[in-house]
Structure formats: structure tokens, C-alpha cells
Amino acid sequence: MIHFFSICIFVFFVQYIQCWTKLNSTDDLIIFKNDEFKCKMFKICQVAVLIHNDLSLNSLKTNSSDENVFKFNQISLCSGKKCPSTQNFSINTNNSINYQVYNAEIQSVLIGKATLNFNTNDHSIINSCHITITQPRRVIDIIFDIMIYTFGFTISLLMGVLLDKKCILNIFKIPRAMFIGFFCQYLLMPLLAFTICNVFGLTPVESLALFIYGCSPGGAGSNNWTILFGGDLDLSAVLTFVSVLSSLFMMPLWVYTLGSVFSTKAHIRIPIIGLFGNLMITIVPCIVGLILSIRYPKIKKFALKVAKPFTLCVLLTFLILAFITKFYSFQLLKLRHWFSGPLIPWFGYFIGGITAWILRLPFNQVKTVAIETGIQNIGVAFLIIYTNLPTPEADFAALPIMAVAFLTNIPLYIALLIIRICKCFSQDLDETDFQQEKSETGPENDPMIEKNKS
């Protein structure tokens, strides 16, 4: 009998505790349709939420955890055909009559992540929903994406057309300069990128993107800079071509070994098929261009006329469109992005040049190796990031690379300006010396006067 009463008291106590917990639980007062909600930039979005009838809206305080990402506007009773029913929420159907569906209106401000919090008057959180603001998908964004692929294909095609078969064979006969350039491109640059990412304390996703850039092949702009600095143009073209072909196995090698340090921390895995696909977009047109130049030699003359203005046009168009479509990203750029990203190509110029000089290459090839090491194909890095990483992670990852795109060539412009000033100054000195010598000689020793006298 005593045991029977003990069991009854225990059951009663357990039931009481369960009822008390249910009555005081706040998780069931507000229920979201999804734990995470995505809203695009420049949009006003409606977040569906189920609120218990016992909870008054006047007793609620709704806010955003970060108003730099999104702002909360208002909450209103949901009505109309687009309004979800209570059956779309994770709730017992027997209790659905005790709830009503509301819409929480939010205004996106900037790409990022924040939470929509429902608080009581005493500031205790009843429930919250994770809000992700993603990049917009406007007409201009679609045009920008198409132009990236088109420009990348065309520049790679031109790169292949400009290659000279005889020059390639000559350089392969004496491959010392080519091996030095390859060593700088695919050994020193990835290690340099890895070091800079760790020194500046970038986030894992930013570090992964910057490391991918550090492993990228040479860029087409290096050929133009080689001409301006009086470098070895044949070597420049061959180094770019070899680095593009080598990227098919060198980039995956680095990304899935040393790059896994960052991808593991970022919880991101770049699929091997996607990476190969991105690289083939650059490699295939380059090979096609080389075949066209061998089969139709006259096409190279046309390519030489078009290459420089087309490359300049592509660069300017890319920068303008990038500024228009991704202007909101400039608000996310921090000092660490402006310093860390450009240091990779800047140190690349120095390391490539010093290495080639130590290994006793001719000075014109020293300049070529330096330029080829520093200038990398930034388009490949952007392509891999935006096609393999989810948004908004891709936008955050691209931040240091955006800084690279704007500041890569700054040391080259400064060096070119110094060279031009020095040349002008030396010409002025030569003219001054000539005039001085003429005045010291005097008019009586002038050969023209002697000739007239005779």
C-alpha cells in the first residue's frame, strides 16, 4: 500500500513538472517556419513566424542583432494567398488553433549574417531566426558574370595566338630561365601567400581565397609590362603558357594539401571536378589559340594589333563593372584586406627578380621573371571562388582579392615613372654637356665656319 501511494505521488510530481515546464517554455510561443532565412541585397523580405495567441504583440520587442546587415521594419498579421498555413510550421496539429501566422518585415542593408530576435519587455530572448543577406541578382550582375567568362576566354585565346613556335622551341632548348620562372611561380608564391594569410590573421575563408590567388597561373597583362620594361617577350609568353598548362596539376596539389588548413577551418570543400572545370576555361582557349597561330600565321599580326588595346579595354571594363556591381563590398573592406592582398604580388616582383638575379640570368630576363612572378591570373581566383563557394562566403572571400585587383600594378607604375624621369634627366644632362663643350670650343673651331671660309 505504501509503495502504491509512493508511485502515485511520483507520477503526480512528474506530470506537474512537465506541465509547469510547458507553461513556462518560451520556445513554443514563437515558432519560425525555418531556422535560417535568406534575403537578397536591396530587397524587403517577409519572414513568416507563428505566434501564440496568449502572447501579445505589445509585449514583444523585435530587433536585429546587427543593423549593418539588415533592419527590422514591422510585424503584421499575415493574409492573402501567399500566406503559409500553420501546417507548414513544425507544430502539433492539435495546437495549431492557438497560433496565428505573422510576417516580420526586414530591410536588407549589406551582405552578411545576423539574427532576428523576439524579446520580452525585460529583454529576455523568446526565440530568434538566423538571417543571411546574399548578393543581389540583377540584370547588371548577370551581364558582369557573362563578361567575366567571355573576357577570360578571349584573353586566353589571344595568349595562345601570340605564342611563337620557333621561340618556344628555342627557350625549351635552354630551359634554365623557364625553370627559374616556374620555381618562383609555383613554389615561392604559394608559400608567400600562406605566410601572409597567417601573419595578418585573416578569417579562414579569406585566407583560402587569397591562397588560391597565390597558386594561380600567370596573367596576360604580364606580356604588356614586359614590353614596357624592355624584358624578354618570348620568355614572358612561354612562362605564361607553361604556368597556365601547369595549373591543371599544380593548383589542385597546393589547394588540397596546404590549402586544406584553411578550407578545414572554413568548413568549405572545393570539389575537384569544379576546380578542373574552372582551370579548363583558361587552358583550352590557350591551346586553341596556339593551334590557330601555327595553322594560320597571318592571324598573329592581327592579334598583335588588337592585344594591347583589347587587354586595356577588358581591364577598365572589368574594374568599372566590378565597382558598379560590387560597390557594396567596398563597405566590407578593412585595412587588413588592403595590406595583406597586394603584398603577395608586390613581394612576388621582388622575390622573382632577386632569385633570377642570384641565379645569374641576363638582366632583361631578370625583369621578365620578376613581372611574371608578381602578376597572376586574378580572373582564375575569382572564378574558382564565385563558382565553388556559397554566398555570402564567396563575397567575404573575395575581399582581399578585390584589393589585389586595384593595387597589383602600383609598384610597376612607380618603377616605370622613375625610369622615364631618369631617362629625361639623363637626356637633359647630355644636351647640357654638348652645349658646354661647344661653347668651350669656341666659334673659331667650329667646322661649319671653317668650311664657309674655305
Our measurement of the CA-to-CA distance between the termini, rounded to an integer number of angstroms, reads 152 Å
Share of residues in strands:
5-15%
Strand order of the largest sheet: 1-3-6-5
**Separate helix tally:** 17
| Radius of gyration from CA coordinates | 33 Å
**How many extended strands?**
8
Weakly predicted, low-confidence segments: 10-14, 16-27
Can you walk through the features of this model?
The strands form two sheets. A four-stranded antiparallel sheet has the order 1-3-6-5, with no helix packed on it. Residues about 10-15 and about 15-25 have low confidence and may be disordered. The chain has 17 helices and eight strands. The chain is an alpha+beta fold. It has helices at about 1-25, 140-160, 165-175, 175-200, 205-215, 220-230, 235-255, 260-265, 270-295, 300-325, 335-360, 365-375, 380-390, 395, 400-405, 410-440, 445-454; strands at about 30, 35-40, 45-50, 60-65, 70-75, 100-110, 110-120, 125-135.
Short description:
61% of the residues lie in helices and 13% in strands. The chain has 17 helices and 8 strands.
Write the layout of secondary structure elements.
Layout: H1 2-24, E1 30-32, E2 36-40, E3 44-52, E4 61-64, E5 70-77, E6 99-108, E7 112-119, E8 125-134, H2 139-161, H3 165-173, H4 176-199, H5 204-214, H6 221-228, H7 233-255, H8 260-266, H9 272-295, H10 299-325, H11 335-358, H12 363-374, H13 378-388, H14 393-397, H15 399-407, H16 410-441, H17 447-453
Parallel strand pairs: 2-8
Antiparallel strand pairs: 1-3, 3-6, 4-7, 5-6, 7-8
Helix pairs in contact: 2-9, 2-10, 4-5, 4-7, 4-11, 4-12, 5-8, 5-13, 6-7, 6-12, 7-9, 7-12, 9-13, 11-12, 11-15
